[in-house]
Amino acid sequence: MPTVITQGAASAKGYGFGARATAANYIEDVFSTYLYTGNSTTGGTQTITNNVDLSTKGGMVWIKGRNAASNNVLFDTARGAGTTASNNQAISSNLGTGEDLGASYDFLSAFNTNGFTVTQGGTTAATRGTNYNNVTYTSWTFRKQPKFFDIVTYTGTGANRTIAHNLGAVPGCIIVKRTDTTADWAVYHRSLANTQYMVLNSTAAAATGATRWNSTTPTSSVFSLGTSTDVNASGGTYFAYIFAHDAGGFGLTGTDNVISCGSFTTDGSGNFSVNLGYEPQWVLIKSTDFVDSWYLIDVMRDMSQTGTNKLNANTTGTESVYGEGFCTPTATGFTATTPGLFTGSQNFIYIAIRRGPMKTPTTGTSVFRPIARTGTGANTTITSNFVTDSVMSVVRTSGQSAWWDRLQGQLLWLSPNSTGTNITDSSALTSFANMIGVNLGVDAAYGRINAASTTYANWMFRRAPGFFDVVCYTGTGAASIVLNHNLTVIPEIYIIKARSAVGDWQTLFNVSGTQYRFWSGASPASGLNLTTASTNTSNLGGLTSTTFTPTFYMGNTHTNSAGVNYVAYLFASVAGVSKVGSYTGTGTTKQIDCGFTGGARFVLIKRTDSTGDWYVWDSARGIVAGNDPYLLLNSNAAEVTSTDYVDTYSAGFEISSTAPAAINANGGTFIFLAIA
After folding, report:
1. Is position 155 within any domain?
2. Of 514, 536, 571, which residue is a domain's last?
3. Do the beta carbons of residue 466 and residue 574 sit within 8 Å?
4. Using CA atoms, how far apart are residues 571 and 117, in angstroms rounded to an integer?
5. Is residue 651 part of a domain?
6. Which residues, at least 6 apart from 349, have a Cβ–Cβ distance to it below 8 Å?
7. Contact 413, 403 (CB under 8 A)
8. Kind of pairing, strands 149-155 and 207-208?
9. Smallest Cα–Cα separation from 412: which of 385, 384, 390?
10. Is the pTM of this model over 0.90?
11. Which segments of 479-556 are extended strands (E)?
12. Of the candidates 252, 249, 270, 272, which has an alpha carbon nearest to the alpha carbon of residue 262?
């Protein structure tokens, strides 16, 4: 994603003030989960472009097959890439064997400035580690960066000693592996005593043994080793992967945490809640009390409200799917609320990594794409050219609509023009696990996104600071509720919908000190699915750069009924990318300046002082000097193609003199969302 270079204590939307000694660091520069499919059975290569610089900065790549049994294979720049199969530098976290798995294995053949290259070499299930044809893979890339991750190599002495590192912080977790012969992967974790260790290639609980870490806690400059041959045999060759814990070092001010190494205890029903202070995208979890696997979880493969896909660091097994409540991300951490994989009271350790991106976008094309297309009725992919977190789809001939998002889970959707609950639809949008879009099925049940010969408007969004965020929560029934978000700025729009109960879409526009409330439960009733005018107020409160409060009618079904599940969509203005605003109608041609340079590609308009529909235009269907098709979010009416209400204007959009009162009544007030 293009970035805004900021300095000093600027906000996430700011363009910088003062001076900063070094450039800001962001999680998307040092970590990536990248999914891909192998493409060869004859030694072919594939280049993975994840925009992480491994060639000049250094780092580690961890790869695991998802749909076929295969080893976890790890490669790092300290040991080097395998330029041919005969010097394969792969090492497996589920095996105790040393490095160089041999010519019969897939391998990583190059570390690049924007990712890495993999080469097929394996032919059996366990050896198809990086690029075997039609095997689906996940890759996790860790770039070397102070206060995030470091790699150290050393030769053992057989005597108690210390090893220097460049993490720039006290390590939260250290993983050591011997490379010249068979030995277990030794794991130090800050949540255990310095006399304890765990084994990455084993299901064993935490063990006690002073010979691993010499009963000494690491410091910000060194870590200690004892005499165990797993970590320090005389003449043995080793590497150590070193992970930081809540060390700051990221974001505009250099104070944001992006990696945490902590612990939690489940209650008697297997529930837990972890507060990280940020939303995670990747978690490694292991029980310290019981024989159990190391679980690898990430949001790209599905870590949602309705399910979690896991892999094991210590086995060759394929991906397993667990249902609702297993390990669910929140705006500030992760939780389990339904007994599943975790049962009874246990202690666990984890490594968690913050969700990105952390940078504010500078172009609309990096976070939003409108598409006009015809459904195929067959498995297909629609592309956005960015990681897609949410998709709204409208049938152009009928107005029937559906809204999906990654956080709820790919099989669930809500209809913007309906009060209904979540629809579970396994054949429509089948997966967000695509680096440049989403995967679709045959869409046989409802036909909201891919029915054969049906025409659609699809709007694809990426969550990004200042632009768009998604929050899921469960109502408490209390008089007030404060919800965390990761928009990083004060929301200018939030839209709330009950997922597990019938209710209207509750909508608030916060524009230049005036809040336009489209809210059910009072008179007048309104909402995204209704046409009623807004209730305006100058100060409803409850909005900050980190929290929002659904202030109105807290106990009703629409916002905070006890035990009801909700989703909230939040938008704000980003210079040159999006604009939330208002205008007063003139009844004549009117230009709306959004600060864009190439015009708006998406326009949503709603009248506030009187009844009016929620009008939507986009550039894929046509924002031109002639007729401009529009749809109504609140209606099942077919697309209207014979009107010329919105025209092109480089700084935003233009409302034509032919526009009706619902868009441009003289003296009327209107709110809008425009995206460049």
Report:
1. yes
2. 571
3. yes
4. 37
5. yes
6. 189, 191, 192, 198, 261, 262, 263, 285, 286, 288
7. yes
8. unpaired
9. 390
10. yes
11. 483-484, 493-498, 506-511, 514-518, 535-537, 547-548
12. 272
- Here the tokens at position 489 are 């700025």
The three-state secondary structure class of 150 is strand
The most distant pair of C-alpha atoms in the chain lies apart, rounded to whole Å, by: 86
Under 8 Å between Cβ of 136 and 65 = yes
| pLDDT at residue 324, rounded to an integer | 66
Are 153 and 190 in a shared domain? Answer: yes
Look at the block and give the residue holding tokens 């696990």.
433
In the predicted structure, residue 582 carries a pLDDT above the cut 80: yes
Among 333, 369, 378, 372, residue whose Cα is nearest residue 352: 333
- CB-based contacts of 593, cutoff 8 Å, min separation 6: 651, 652
Q: Which amino acid makes up residue 117?
A: T
Tally the domains of the chain: 6
Separation CA 515–CA 527 (nearest Å): 14
> Strand 437-440 to strand 506-511: parallel, antiparallel, or no bridges (unpaired)?
unpaired
Burial string for 635-648 (b: 16+ CB within 10 Å, else e) reads eeeebeeeeebbbb
251 within some domain: no
Produce one character per residue of 445-464: b if its CB has 16 or more CB atoms within 10 Å, e if not.
ebbbbbbeebbbbbbbbbbb
Q: What is the mean pLDDT of residues 24-53?
A: 97
Looking at the structure, tell me whether residues 97 and 196 fall in a common domain: no
Amino acid at 78: A
| 280 SS3 class | strand
- Contact (CB, 8 A) for 153 and 99: no
Residues 6+ positions from 40 with CB-CB distance below 8 Å? 46, 119, 120, 131, 132, 133
Q: Do 130 and 32 share a structural domain?
A: yes
**Which residue type occupies 599?**
G
Judgement on whether residues 453 and 431 belong to the same structural domain of the protein: yes
What φ, ψ does residue 212 adopt, rounded to 5°? -80, -55
> Which domain range does residue 123 map to?
27-143
Q: What are the tens digits of pLDDT across the range 219-246?
A: 999 999 999 999 999 999 999 999 999 9
**How many residues make up the chain in this entry?**
676
Compute the mean pLDDT over every residue in the chain, rounded to the nearest whole number.
91
List, in sequence order, every beta strand (DSSP E) within 590-668: 590-593, 602-607, 614-618, 631-632, 646-649, 652-655
Beta-bridged to residue 509, according to DSSP, are 493, 516
- Report the relative pairing of strands 161-164 and 91-92 from DSSP bridges: unpaired
Assess whether pLDDT exceeds 60 at residue 7: no
Q: Is the same domain home to 557 and 632?
A: no
Distance CA 242, CA 165 (A): 8
Quick check: is 249 in a domain?
no
Residues 345 and 368 in one domain: no
Domain-terminating residue out of 109, 143, 177? 143
Is residue 31 located within the same domain as residue 124? yes
Structural contact between residues 579 and 497, judged by C-beta atoms closer than 8 angstroms: no
